[in-house]
Structures are given as structure tokens and as C-alpha cells.
Amino acid sequence: MIESQVNIRSIGEMEEEIVSEFTVFDEWLDKYEYLIELGKELESIDESDKTDDNLIRGCQSRVWLVCRSSGGRLWFGADSDAVITKGIISLLLKVYNGQKYDDIIASDFSFIERIGLKENLSPTRANGLLSMIKQIKAYALAYKEKETQQ
Amino acid sequence: MLFRPKTKVCLVLLQVMDIIEQIREEFPALHQQVWGKPLIYLDNAATAQRHRKVLELQELMSSRINANIHRALHKLSADATDLYEAGREAVRNFIGAESREEIIFTSGATSALNLIAFSLVRSHLTAGDKVLVCEAEHHSNIVPWQLACEVSGVSLEVLSVEESGEISLERLRELLEKDDRIRILSVNHISNVLGIINPIAEIVRIAHSRGVLVVIDGAQGVVHDKVSVKDLDCDFYVFSGHKIYAPSGIGALYGRRSLLENMPPYMGGGDMVDRVSFGRTTYAPLPLKFEAGTPNFVAAACLKPALEFATAIREDIQVQEHEKSIVSTMVQGLQQIEGLRICGLPQELSLKVPIFSLDIKGVHPADAAQMLDKMGIAVRSGFMCAEPLVSRYSESGLLRVSFAPYNTLSECEIFINKLKLVTDMLK
User: Fold this and answer.
1) Across the interface, do B367 and A83 touch by the CB < 8 Å criterion?
2) Same domain flag for B268 and B375
3) Between vectors from CA B37 to CA B32 and to CA B43, what angle results, nearest 5°?
4) Which H or E element spans position B186?
């Protein structure tokens, strides 16, 4: 399910909020506990959306991503079979849902590194997250191009 | 509640602990911290750590005896060649082969299996023939055969394993009796997922009684079981160096001499030839016929100290006892975790080696592996390069924990307790 409420706060503001949320965790275990909680709470996407077309294949865990555009902004829905990956997905959705194409294209996703989860975005992790981020950008680029042509 | 094994601390146990501590001292890589925690390395079935003597020889050869083998007349080359050939002699001795001509160096078990698949299918099979592999094979013992089959009109058949992970000899017999086009059987000694010692001697007997050649993937087998290719009477046996305390990039292939002599070379190039002209090229005698190009001579030489260590520990009764206690402690401890299934548990526990692939209900293996890593525990998750077998147990893969003789019982207990903690959090 994709929410369509307009996100009034900018990507930068959302990132800052998450970064400050994470500063309370001294221990990695607490951080992961929180990610797991977020992962469990994240609403699953419809089973019918878990198609091969929407699948981002990582060799360790699988990620599904769907996207919808409205009024120059994008909304994403995503899911994974691994709960920690799902927790990070939940953070990404918080930041990027309802944002404008250009803001998404310009974003560098560095907040993941700032909250100490950089290794999760390493290509060697093969958990699908890096590909998911690339796909989010690809959607923004594709929608922008489509609307410029119209 | 913390898991404590029901082993009595007695004098024997203390002696064993002492020996394991001594072994640990020989492996520098074990003495480090990851993420601020002492490393507990339980991914030995993928790559084992290197023995100190291996590292010393590697350093010595790289810094002092670096010269290409076989070809030159100078001292360094002669020394490098001697060390390389000493590595071959160590392999011959380790797996009980009759002659050095039957030991071919390859870059690992994978390239050894590719060599066999391509050359043997070409020299011994004709279109319509079949190759039989077991369901529990590593991709390295599936894909080379598929590739070789594609170009030769040969097809691949599969021998499925029992629910316990064991090979049914009865089923093998039936398959071979029913289908006389099966000409080669390629099977693992111990699967890297199941950790069960397969009855390879019986398998060879059954296959040979039907005139079927037998290739054995011993990548895990040489680490946990004694091997004598002469007693086994198998036609081929392959293994990798990096799983048995040697460097990566080296492996060995044993082949029956009469077969190797009739097989065409797999790769052409330097050192594998006798005479070369544009009209006709003749090949070098065994084993060089199959060793084209400059081999990884440093790693090959390092097999000697690695295999000497492996021989010493496999003959040590206390180390054997230690391996058994790891197996029983693991089985006992893992069974206390709700929803956990050990994939590959034979009726007879003495056939189980300390390689455990786990399916935990409600827990994705990648999540568990990631959290254990943060605790300093290195394990593996996923399909372990054996997708056909692993998909039978789980669609998201398994969590694999594999021990070496340098792993202590205390590491085993820490692992079980941490796994409990992790599964409770993830469920």
C-alpha cells in the first residue's frame, strides 16, 4: 500500500530527524533492536505486487519496490524477506515518500552512513538495499523525463 | 537460561583443551577482534585459517625464492621447483596415491572439476551417454558437467538424497541398473551444506560394478575424514587448499593414471607441451600435461606444511574426540532452540562432521548472520553455492556454522547462547 499524503518536510529535515533519533543508541544492539522493530511494523506490500518485475534481487535477501507518482512527487512501497533490511527500508521510505523528483535525484542517501549503517549499503552485502536506492533514483529520473516530454 | 553442555570437566577434557589451545597458537588470524569483540570464526567450510608454517613459507618464497618453476637452470628456479614438487609429494602422501604423475595441481576444487568434466566427457563419453550427480552437490560439481554436456550431447541425471540428507545406496543401485547410459558418477565426499560423511567406498564399489567411473569432490572430505584413494579405488578425487589451512588459489586433482593418460589436455600453453610446431604439437608427460601456464607455485608449496598439520591432527585421538564433542554439544544445544531444524542429521551421529546448516522458523538467515557478525561471530548465510539442495529446505537460504579443530567448546557454547538471543530478537 502506498500512502499519498504530501510530505511537507524536506529530505534534509527528515534525514536530520532520523539521525537525531539514532544518537540515543550507544550500543549497536539497541540500534538493531530498533531497526528490527521498524522492520516488523512496516506494512507489507500487497502479495500481488511481489512480482519478478518489482523484485530487486540480492543474493542474501530479496527486496520488492513499487512506485507511484502524483503531482510531481513520488510514493514508494517496499518489502523484504529479511527484517533488518525491512527496517532500513522503513527509514528510506520515511525520507523519500512524497518528495519531488529533483530532490530525490539530488539526494545522496548519506544519512544511512551517518547513523552507522554504512556496511548495509555495501555491494558485498548483496542485500538488495543498494540496488533499491539506485532504483528509487531511477524512478525519479524516469518520471521527470516522462513529464518533461509531455 | 544459558546453555551449558552436560560434559564432565575431567582430566581428559582439560588435556584436550590444552591441545586445542596449542593448535590455536599456530593460527595468527584467530587472535584478533572484530567490531570490538574477540573473533569467533565459524565459517571454516568456506575458508579455513592459515597455519603459521604456511604463512612463513608463503613469506619466504615471496621474498626470497620467487622464480618461475621447471624452466630455468638457475638456483632460485631450482629451489622453487623443489618446493613446488615437495607440495605435490605432500598431496600424494596425504591422499594415498601411488605416484606423483597422478597428482595434478589446479587452482582449486572448482577448476579440478572443470578439468575432469571437459576432458573426461570428451575422451570417454559419446552423445546419448549420461553423467550422474547427487542432489547435494556444490555448484562446482554441477555447472561444469552442465557445460560439458551442452557441447557433447551428453545429459545430466540427479540422484536425490533422503530427508536426513543421506545418500540411499539402494536408490543409487536402482538408478544404475535401470540406466546403462550412465557412465560417470560425480559425488561429494561430505556436502558443504549437510556435513554428512557419505559412504564413498560403497558408492565406488556399486558404480564400478556397473562400469561407471567415479569422481569425488573432496573439498570438505579431506578436512574431516581420512582419505586413501588407493583403498577407495575411486577414479578421481579433488580438493582445495584454502579449506585445509593452505592459501587460496591452489587445489589438487587425483586421477587414475590410465584415465589421465587418455584424456586430452584441458588448457594449452607453457610447460604442458613436449614439442610445438604449427603442424603438430605433442604434450608433456603426466602430470605436466594438465598444468598449462605458470601455476601458483607458492601456494602449491604451502600445501606441504598445511597437509602435514592436517595429518598430525587427524591422527590425534584427542583432536578426534574434540571434534565429536563439538558435534554433540551443537546438536544438544541447537535442539533447545524452538523452531530450529538442522538440515543434514544422519541416523548415526558419528557420520556427522561439525558443519551445521540451520533453518530457523521466522528468522531470515541473513538477519541472523548480520547480528552474529556484530557479536564477533563469523558464520555464513544463504544458499552456500548449493541452490538445488538448499531450496529444498528453505526459499530464503540457511544459516551455516562450520568448525575447525581450533574452535573451542567454549566458542561453541557462546555461539549457541548468542544464536538464542538473536532468534528471540528476530522472531
Assistant:
1) yes
2) no
3) 70
4) strand B182-188
CA distance B289 to chain A (A): 38
Q: Which domain holds residue B259?
A: 55-311
| In the predicted structure, residue B137 carries a pLDDT above the cut 50 | yes
Among B266, B287, B311, which residue terminates a domain?
B311
Residue B64 has pLDDT above 60, yes or no: yes
Contacts of A61 in chain B (CB under 8 A): 364, 366-367, 396
Model confidence over B33-63: pLDDT tens digits?
999 999 999 999 999 999 999 999 999 999 9
Whether residue B203 is found in the same domain as residue B75: yes
The tens digit of pLDDT for each residue in A12-43 reads 999 999 999 998 998 899 999 999 999 999 99
Rounded alpha-carbon distances, angstroms, from residue A137 to A65, A99, A109, B242, B306:
12, 12, 10, 41, 50
CATH code of B378's domain: 3.90.1150.10
Q: Give the nearest chain A residue to B370 (CA atoms).
A: A84
Per-residue confidence at A58, pLDDT binned at 50, 70, 90?
low
When divided into structural domains, chain B yields a total of: 2
Residue B315: all three cell numbers together: 591422527
R_g over Cα of chain B: 22
List the end-to-end C-alpha distance of chain B, in Å, as a whole number: 18
Contact A84 B396 (CB under 8 A): no
Compute the average pLDDT of residues B368-380: 96
CB contact (8 A) between residue B366 and residue A84: yes
Within-domain flag for B207: yes
**Is B374 in CB contact (< 8 Å) with chain A?**
yes
Helices (H) and strands (E) in chain B, counts: 15, 17
B423 vs A: CB within 8 A? no
Q: Establish if B397 touches chain A: CB-CB under 8 angstroms.
A: yes
Do residue B323 and residue B291 come from a single domain? no
Asked whether residue B197 falls in the same domain as residue B273, the answer is yes
When pLDDT is cut at 50, 70 and 90, the band that residue A7 belongs to is low
- The answer to whether ipTM exceeds 0.85 is yes
Contact assignment for B426 to A127 by CB distance below 8 Å: no
B151 and B236 share one domain:
yes
Residues of A with CB under 8 A from a CB of B: 28-29, 32-33, 36, 59-62, 81-85, 127
